[in-house]
């Protein structure tokens, strides 16, 4: 089953039919960036745009006219999926059989059904009632540059990075979800025919595609939570955004038909032809690079930066101006440790991981936390538990409960410390061998970091990188290749690595190798200081 992608030129007609209004803006192709929102003048605007010329926001205290207004009924979220199930009996059967596990899962199920309806062949029954989303998904790209949609060869570029294991795990999870959908829907004759017995049945690549749409376009709305907002979800992100979205359905005084609007940031002025962008969090904030706060708005806090890996994983690109110089790596116990399973069990969830953050970049402090003398900080509580054994005073025992069950308990120096498994550093800090324990941890860290750096440096000699440079001709070539990715008989793989993929993977490796190298320098300095202290 191919994804019948429709030209973006037809989008204004769909927007008009569905009461989405534009003010002096329109969705257009942007060279090297796909689709995006641009300001237009009165002679080049879309049918749904209001007449005018340049756009200027009012004062921060005055009313601001929306650039885009999307009715509430078009917003896709968990509640909207449930409403659709109330209208369509067939979808209700599918949702009850294969859904109700998460908001994301239900939305993906809805998108998959719209994909099937929109690609039905002559003579095939209509799977479910069509909705505005049936046509809208045709405007969504057949290829989203998220690593889960990269080819096997392209994913080799992630070796040694924090995304190497994360992407593998995500693909495995998506495959398990797809297998579960197949198993549960096959028991329903109607959906067995609509999904699996048709001429071109669903394939794993379609589930990966709808997941990519959701992850790269999902917005967090106060009233509905994770949501997809048609048209606004085509606005590109920027480290210096000039617009933000607002959920007016969450405002008590708003009209009954209030939806989600895109607004120009106060004080901004946009000329015809300029691109309009939002922050990575969608908050109002100011004109500085946007950072997420606990309230979902933006501020200048470093805490709102996204790591380069998260940005690439969620959006398919990295903005070097808006990243947090940090990474997270999985940590595995020693393969020959007889206590490894017991340690992992007591440590519990979330699974052990190493977090490293660079506090200074090119000599400039990027995090102000009172530790500016250190260029890098790291955190991995499990390492302190991982690096001790029975000879040091660690023990595990089974305790019989009053209800007859047994519970694994952890003891340190004959004291039950099960509840402090995630803070074992504190337990060992008062031990007479504390410097030895710390040296063990640092040594293991060095080995982990060196291993990742070595894998990163091995990338390049055995992969063929396509020479796309982002020019119009390259974009057209890429689009032609993308159209063949979702064909019925193709496997979605390219012989060469796309230039845009190679570029983003190189940025990720550069950022993370700098962080790892900085951490290695910090650890080596600590080892040298410890050795010098002991010799004295």
Give a verbal description of the structure.
With 536 residues, the protein is of the alpha+beta class. It folds into three domains: 1-75 and 229-294, Beta Complex (Beta-clip-like); 76-226, no CATH class; 325-536, no CATH class. The protein has helices at 11-17, 78-87, 89-98, 103-118, 132-136, 152-155, 163-185, 189-196, 204-217, 308-315, 340-347, 381-386, 424-429, 434-457, 472-485, 499-535; strands at 21-23, 25-30, 34-39, 49-50, 55-56, 68-70, 219-221, 225-227, 243-247, 260-264, 269-270, 275-276, 306-307, 323-324, 326-330, 353-358, 360-361, 364-365, 376-379, 394-400, 406-412, 415-416. The protein is globular. 38% of the residues are buried.
Please outline the helices and strands:
Layout: H1 11-17, E1 21-23, E2 25-30, E3 34-39, E4 49-50, E5 55-56, E6 68-70, H2 78-87, H3 89-98, H4 103-118, H5 132-136, H6 152-155, H7 163-185, H8 189-196, H9 204-217, E7 219-221, E8 225-227, E9 243-247, E10 260-264, E11 269-270, E12 275-276, E13 306-307, H10 308-315, E14 323-324, E15 326-330, H11 340-347, E16 353-358, E17 360-361, E18 364-365, E19 376-379, H12 381-386, E20 394-400, E21 406-412, E22 415-416, H13 424-429, H14 434-457, H15 472-485, H16 499-535
Parallel strand pairs: 1-4, 13-14
Antiparallel strand pairs: 1-6, 2-3, 3-12, 5-11, 6-10, 7-8, 9-10, 15-16, 16-19, 17-18, 20-21, 21-22
Shape designation: globular
Strand order, main sheet: write it out. Answer: 4-1-6-10-9
Tell me the count of domains.
3
By DSSP (H or I, 4+ residues per run), the number of helices equals 16
Calculate the terminal CA-CA distance, rounded to whole Å. Answer: 72 Å
**Which class of secondary structure composition applies to the elements?**
alpha+beta
Helix content: 25-40%
The residue-averaged pLDDT reads 83
Looking at the chains present, what oligomeric state does this protein adopt? single chain
Work out the number of β strands: 22
- Rounded to an integer, what's the Rg over CA atoms? 26 Å
Give the biggest beta sheet: 5 strands, mixed
Organism: Sporothrix eucalyptigena
Protein name: SET domain-containing protein
